[in-house]
Structures are given as structure tokens and as C-alpha cells.
């Protein structure tokens, strides 16, 4: 970008994104490793082909039918006008900050958390601030409320389950934060389908809090990462604010059509969730047996460590064909729950590193 009159805060920045490498075992971006069946793939193809016949026309601008399907999937008495959809939950979040953030406003989150949040803030000219989680990655409701009261952020982002730790936030803590918040609160439930049975969703709180929103994605549990569909549930007024800042025709006709097919096949696409949840728990137990710390996770990944040189461990695993993620506090690494074959490959690769100088623990 040398010589171009870019915004000062973008000078020296690089595009966000985890490495995309051609390796045998990709366990770094928390995808569902089980692709759609031939039956579902054929239905997706047929829907795309049908949409292609009217490709000369703009798509339905506000994706009303898709939003109705999403509302039916979420339940909780939601209707289409209480749901918003966009190209991944990243775009949904950006819409939130475009509507409720901006110059002179701030967004608060609880660190460590999703590394895209400060990017949303930067791109929307919103001030970015964080408050620390406890050492076990939970949020202390008392100190969190104090921070909200003192800082008075316009937007609060709460990831539950948290990324990169996988920590679910209990509803009492969320309720306390929302009660103290002067602005809007967004609970990011991108990994909610992977929580332990009985873990409640923040969707339960929506009837009582018109300034609360809950975001979800079809990129994780739904095995639909390539489809790029994220969505949000909130009050009608909250959704209307997002409609003001969205670009016209932001969701293509193909995206809307194939996402509806995926939702119609939700039972099949989500069938692997129990397996991935079991592999996650088995992986966490195995890591602990190796003398490592493993964060308690309600997502489809495990944060583990702590290594004296996590970059060296990451590279050593990559050299063996296993790609994981360098993310979170210093010393920690994150690995996605995968198939039995992927988990065996990861364990074999990590075992070969542990006990060597590269695998030295803190």
C-alpha cells in the first residue's frame, strides 16, 4: 500500500485470516470435517441451478423467506422480522457496529476473545476496549459490571462459547451485564450447537431485553462454511437498525437458496455434532494426561498449553502435516475437534514434540 493515501490506522496492517495451507490435516479454523451427503449436495446444486435461471434479476433484498426459516430453526417464538442474516456472522457483527458504534463510540469485550472483534471496531471507527477474564477464562460478573458502569461502552460483545477458550458464559452473568449496559449487548453464539446438553442459550433473554442480540453462524456445526451465512436474533427495532446500514442486495440469490436447503436438512447436517463433542472431550482429557493445560470447552475446539515457544510447536506440527492455530494468550495453542483419523494424526504429531526442547512447557 506504499504511496497510497490509506487511512492512517491501516498503515502496516495485513489482511486478517488464518493460514490456508494444503496439508493433510487442517485443524485450525473449527470447521465441521464431515461434508454434506450426496443427497444434500444434490439438493444444494439443484437450488443453485434454479436460482441461476433468474440471475439477471436482483435477489430478494431482505431475504425474508430465509429469515423465516432461520427463525423457525431457532425457535423461542421468533419471527422473520426478529432475525437478520448476512454473509457470515462477521458481516452481521460489522452491521451491528455500523449501526450502534462509530466515531466517538466504544465497544467493550472480555479478553482473551475472538480476534476479529477489534477488526470490526477499527473498520467502523469505533473505539476498542477490553476487560480481562479470569485465569480460567470465565467472566467475573461483579468486576464485569463494574467495568461496564465505569466505561459505559456503546456496544458490548460477549462470545459464548468464547473463542479461543471455548468457555460458555452463564445466563446470570449475561443478565447482569445487560442490566448494567447503557447501550446494546451482543452475545456471539457461533459455537452454540456444540455446548453440553442443558446449557441454555441467551435467546431465552431476548423477550426481556430489546437491546440484546444473539448471533449465530452456519459455518461451524452446519458444515456450511463455504456457504457464508451468519445471522442474528433480536428485537424488531434492533433488526430494523441493521437494515438501515446494510448494502442493498447483500445476500446473493444463490446464498439465500442454498442456505434454505441446508436449514431444511438441519437434522442431517447437525448429525455429526455429538461425535465432534465427544472427540472434543476425549481430546481435552488426553491433553491433560500429557501434562498439558486444556481449557474447559463448550465449542468444537480445545485451547491447550502452555508452551515456552508455541510458534516452534506449531511449526513442528505443521512439518508433520498437522495445521492448528496460534491464538489466545502467550503460550497457548488451539486445535479443532475433528474426525478420529484427524485426532490420531494430531496426537501422534504432538507426542513426537512433547519432551523435546521445542515442546518445553512453561
From TrEMBL:
Class in the EC hierarchy, top level: transferase
PROSITE patterns for the chain: AA_TRANSFER_CLASS_2
Entry keywords, A to Z: Amino-acid biosynthesis, Aminotransferase, Histidine biosynthesis, Pyridoxal phosphate, Transferase
Named cofactor requirement(s): pyridoxal 5'-phosphate
Listed InterPro entries: Aminotrans_II_pyridoxalP_BS, Aminotransferase_I/II_large, HisP_aminotrans, PyrdxlP-dep_Trfase, PyrdxlP-dep_Trfase_major, PyrdxlP-dep_Trfase_small
Domain Aminotransferase class I/classII large intervals: 27-345
Pfam family, one: Aminotran_1_2
Pathway per the UniProt entry: Amino-acid biosynthesis; L-histidine biosynthesis; L-histidine from 5-phospho-alpha-D-ribose 1-diphosphate: step 7/9
Key word Amino-acid biosynthesis present: yes
Residues modified as N6-(pyridoxal phosphate)lysine: 220
A Gene Ontology molecular function term of the record: histidinol-phosphate transaminase activity
Catalyzed chemical reaction(s): L-histidinol phosphate + 2-oxoglutarate = 3-(imidazol-4-yl)-2-oxopropyl phosphate + L-glutamate
Gene Ontology biological-process entries: L-histidine biosynthetic process
Enzyme Commission number: 2.6.1.9
Subunit structure: Homodimer.
Similarity comment: family membership: Belongs to the class-II pyridoxal-phosphate-dependent aminotransferase family. Histidinol-phosphate aminotransferase subfamily.
NCBIfam families hit by this protein: hisC (TIGR01141), PRK03317.1 (NF002877)
HAMAP family xrefs: HisC_aminotrans_2
Name of the protein described by the UniProt record: Histidinol-phosphate aminotransferase
Protein source organism: Microlunatus phosphovorus (strain ATCC 700054 / DSM 10555 / JCM 9379 / NBRC 101784 / NCIMB 13414 / VKM Ac-1990 / NM-1)
Lineage: Bacteria, Bacillati, Actinomycetota, Actinomycetes, Propionibacteriales
